[in-house]
Each structure stands twice: as structure tokens, then as C-alpha cells.
Amino acid sequence: xxxxxxxxxxxxxxxxxxxxxxxAGFGAVxxxxxxxxxxxxxxVEELRELVxxxxxxxxxxxxxxxxxxxxAAYCARWGExxxxxxxxxxxxxxHENPEDHIFDHRHVPLHWDGMYRPQVPxxxxxxxxxxxxxxxxxxxxxxxxxxxxxxxxxxxxALWEQVTGIYRRKMEFYExxxxxxxxxxxxxxxxxxxxxxxxxxxxDEFINHPVLEFTGVPAARLEEFHRGLSKALRAPGYAxxxxxxxxxxxxxxxxxxxxxxxxxxSRAPRHLRRVHVLGDPPLENPALRAGxxxxxx
Length: 297
Prior knowledge:
Elements: E1 2-7, E2 10-15, E3 28-31, H1 44-54, E4 56-60, H2 68-75, E5 90-93, E6 108-111, E7 119-120, E8 123-130, E9 140-144, H3 145-151, H4 154-162, E10 164-171, E11 174-181, E12 183-185, E13 192-194, E14 211-215, H5 222-233, E15 239-242, E16 249-253, E17 257-261, E18 271-277, E19 283-284, E20 288-290
Parallel strand pairs: 3-4
Antiparallel strand pairs: 1-2, 2-3, 4-16, 5-18, 6-17, 7-19, 8-16, 8-18, 9-15, 9-17, 10-11, 10-14, 11-20, 12-13
Pfam families: TauD
Protein name: TauD/TfdA family dioxygenase
Domain TauD/TfdA-like: 22-275
């Protein structure tokens, strides 16, 4: 079933069934009504509410932003931008000799953004500058964690609720420790959400993985915990993998969703730009225990 709304001449399609939907079980799609339409013409207040209601918003067919500066200027209309040492815009593109997995071509496990920073952004805005080929991978995976919890078996949810994650990560932009219960609360609505960074297999070729520790249940149950939670987060209807098209703008609800990345063919033309926008008021990171700023700052 599709429910159709209109925003000043632009059609919004909200998908409510999982039968081969553009967005699996959640999310909204806004497509340009005519070629050459610019995103600046859309009312940000209404788009913001779509993201808060549907958790993921795809804006497709609009005139692409000319550069990172133009993207940042648009994102500032959504709210206060979370600034990094490099500025507002992170260029997500494979590096020749990457020192961190975000600049590699391999997969990235599910996580939430801002977990190692002083403030957690409400919105992530991803703009696709260049999309990989249809058979080259590189999709961005999103998981709707409030729905996962709502529909979880009581025994599984009870196990998840006992666990706390301790995450330690060092990279160019920070050296931090974050401590968070796996099942927490949405900072605005109070709705239960999942805050979790998936581990990777010890033999997985992965650059600069954080150090992860999970407490609250006997060690003998941790494998059961990770296996069950990852399966639930990636199940059809709760997870959606966005296959990029050049020019796409995707806005994600970082308070509710987890996200990760599929591996992609090395040297494929995959180039995203990402901007973080803070909530109003900004969310001071409840998980941060140490760090959040560049080493040596």
C-alpha cells in the first residue's frame, strides 16, 4: 500500500508494505516534480517532520549541489551543523592508503554517529556525488531499531536489555571511550531504541576497528546476544540497504537508526558527502566517558 502526500508540487511516497519497496518497512521518498527542480524550494520544516516520523528520507531527481560548500549551506537550513576539525562536510571516498575503515572499500558494521563526540547529531545528510555501478556494492545499510524492539521476542529483548557496550576508538579526529546500554531511550520521545556497534570477526580484514567490550550477561551468552541482535537488526522489514544514484540526498534519523556500509569494488566511483546536523537543543552525548576531541588538542 502507498500513501501519497504533496509538498508544494512534489510527490511524497510513503511505503507501508515490505513487498520489494524502495524503502523497506520505513522511510519516505520525495522525487522532483520536474527536471531541474532545486531542493532549496522545499520547506525544510516539513521535510524535517518527515524524517522524524518515517526515520529516513530519500530526496531524488533534484539538481545536485555544486560542491561541499553549497551542500553545507543547504544543511544549515536543517539546524546547527556539528563541526569537525575538517569542517562541516566529510568526504566519504576511498583513500589510496586508508588509515581508517571509513576511507576503505570494505564493509562497515552497524553503529550510530556521534557516539565518540561531545554531541550526538539528530540528522545525517548524505549527498551522493558519484555512485558506484549497480554491481559494485557500496550500499548504505540502515536499521530501524525502535521497530526491532517493538517486535522482538520477549526473551531476546530481555537479554539485550541486560547488556552494556563499552567502545574505545582512536582515529585522526578523536580518541574516545563511550559507554551505553544496548537498549536506551530516544532523547526526545522516550521511545526505546538500540545503541550498538556490531563487532567484526577476529579474522576479518578491517582497518582500525574500535575496541569493544560488552558487560551485563555471562560471557557464555555473549555469542547468543551478538548473533541474535545482529540478525534482528538486519532482518527484512527492519533493515534497508540504499543503493546510491548520483545526486541522491538521504536524510537519516540518527537518534533511532543504526547504519553501516556494504563493501564495494575498490576504485569504484563511490563518493558521498556527509553532514551532521544537531537537534534543538543539541544532545549532549550521554555515552561519552573520555575524549571526543582530536588527540593532542
